[in-house]
Design brief:
By secondary structure, this protein is mostly helical. It is about 75% helix and about 0% strand. It contains 18 helices and 2 strands. A two-stranded antiparallel sheet has the order 1-2. It is globular and about 70 Å long.
Length: about 425
């Protein structure tokens, strides 16, 4: 009797099945408090499992990578390239959102009075406190007064700063630091093994998280804002395929090859709306794909604060959408001001929960849109968040490859060998 290995689906397919089942269950149990109470803890536990391993992976990989790099001048050069690249791509993303918003005018067809409102009180306090942060405060917060406190809070940038300094210190003491390098190298291997175990639970976690979202808001929340949702996703796809594709091509990188390698992580990020969920595997895969450990350990975690391309597209598009819905005409000068404001605020609030929504809340006042206007799109924020998180993951993976190539620390042979594992097989394997 012949059997197909149907049960041995790869992780991406299993996550996709979990996503579809979550949509179905959420729709069936719409506004059912018992279903939400059952599913919510499952999704929360999965996200907590991921958060548990993120910082140990970042620290161990970065310490080893920086220690082996051992050159503070090289580190400064890599850091400079990374920040400049991030800023350029984020600016392009914001500009693309503004261009598409002006061309499609999604807010013109909306009657603001017919849209249902969702409370935005949970974001108000965060926006108020984050909005008072100037650039000086942001830069001051990079340096932790207490590393373990930053570690406990999960503040990525202060942790990265200390870890980089620690790695350079290990490199500076020469042979005495070998023991520490070996220790952190072993820690990273252990953490990657744990990652593989945890990722087997991803389909269950995705099922629960999607089920809760749909059960709470329902599919009906999509109807009045379907056009905005469609335009937002179309813009994100254009950014990935066209903008990232062209930038990648300048460095001889095929964006579709990259997507093939990280497709499971993109699906996971999309399903959970959490960049952290994909971070451990992205770090592991980028190393296997030919990027040096030091570059991956620095660029990818830093990108989760400074290179949020999907979020940038959403913020500019949503700001224009709301202005159009309120019949507020924005001149070219006002839109340029909006672009500059978004460039600054998006960096200052990256670590705030619901950051993209908080950025909008703190920004739209500059174009005359009432703060309560965000209540009209709050209902679909989670659904847009899924798309922008997936774009963020792709953007940071591409950034790691480009910075590595610019530093001649990209192994082409290793890349091609690893890519071959992701080429589709000609036919389904059969066994008797």
């Amino acid at each position: 009797m012949k059997k197909y290995h149907l049960l041995r689906l790869n992780l991406g397919w299993r996550i996709l099945i979990g996503l579809i089942l979550g949509l179905i269950v959420g729709a069936i149990f719409y506004q059912n408090k018992i279903a939400v109470a059952i599913l919510q803890p499952i999704g929360t536990i999965f996200i907590n499992l991921i958060k548990m391993i993120v910082l140990p992976i970042v620290i161990s990989c970065l310490v080893v990578g920086i220690a082996k790099m051992g050159d503070i001048k090289k580190l400064g050069r890599v850091g400079g390239k990374t920040i400049i690249y991030f800023e350029l791509m984020t600016t392009i993303a914001i500009a693309l959102g503004l261009v598409v918003g002006n061309l499609t005018k999604p807010g013109d067809s909306i009657n603001i009075n017919t849209l249902s409102k969702v409370s935005i009180s949970q974001y108000t306090t965060a926006a108020r406190s984050a909005g008072h942060q100037g650039l000086g405060t942001i830069f001051m917060n990079i340096v932790p007064t207490n590393f373990f406190q930053a570690l406990g809070k999960g503040d990525m940038i202060p942790v990265i700063f200390f870890t980089v300094m620690f790695g350079l210190g290990i490199a500076a003491i020469g042979k005495k630091g070998t023991l520490l390098i070996d220790f952190f190298d072993a820690v990273s291997e252990v953490m990657f093994k744990m990652t593989n175990w945890i990722m087997q639970l991803a389909p269950i976690g995705v099922f629960a998280l999607i089920g809760v979202t749909i059960a709470q808001f329902g599919l009906s929340a999509l109807k009045p804002l379907a056009l905005f949702l469609l335009i937002a996703y179309a813009t994100m796809i254009i950014f990935v395929v066209v903008v990232m594709g062209l930038v990648g091509r300048l460095w001889h990188i095929n964006i579709f090859d990259l997507l093939r390698v990280i497709k499971d992580e993109v699906i996971l990020a999309f399903s959970t709306a959490s960049s952290e969920a994909a971070l451990p595997k992205i770090i592991e895969k980028m190393q296997k794909y030919g990027v040096s450990q030091g570059i991956v350990g620095f660029v990818v975690p830093t990108g989760y604060t400074f290179n949020l391309d999907g979020s940038a597209i959403y913020q500019s598009l949503a700001a224009l959408f709301l202005a159009q819905a309120y019949h507020i005409h924005l001149s070219i000068g006002q839109q340029i001001t909006l672009l500059v404001v978004l460039m600054i605020t998006s960096k200052g609030m990256a670590g705030v929960p619901g950051a993209s929504f908080v950025v909008l809340l703190a920004t739209i006042s500059t174009i005359g849109v009432p703060a309560e206007g965000l209540a009209f799109i709050a209902g679909i924020d989670r659904l847009v968040d899924m798309g922008r998180t997936a774009v963020n993951v792709v953007g940071n993976s591409l950034a790691a490859m480009i910075v590595a190539k610019s530093e001649h620390e990209f192994d082409e042979a290793k890349s091609q060998e690893y890519l071959s594992h992701f080429k589709p097989s000609p036919k389904m394997t059969k066994v008797s």
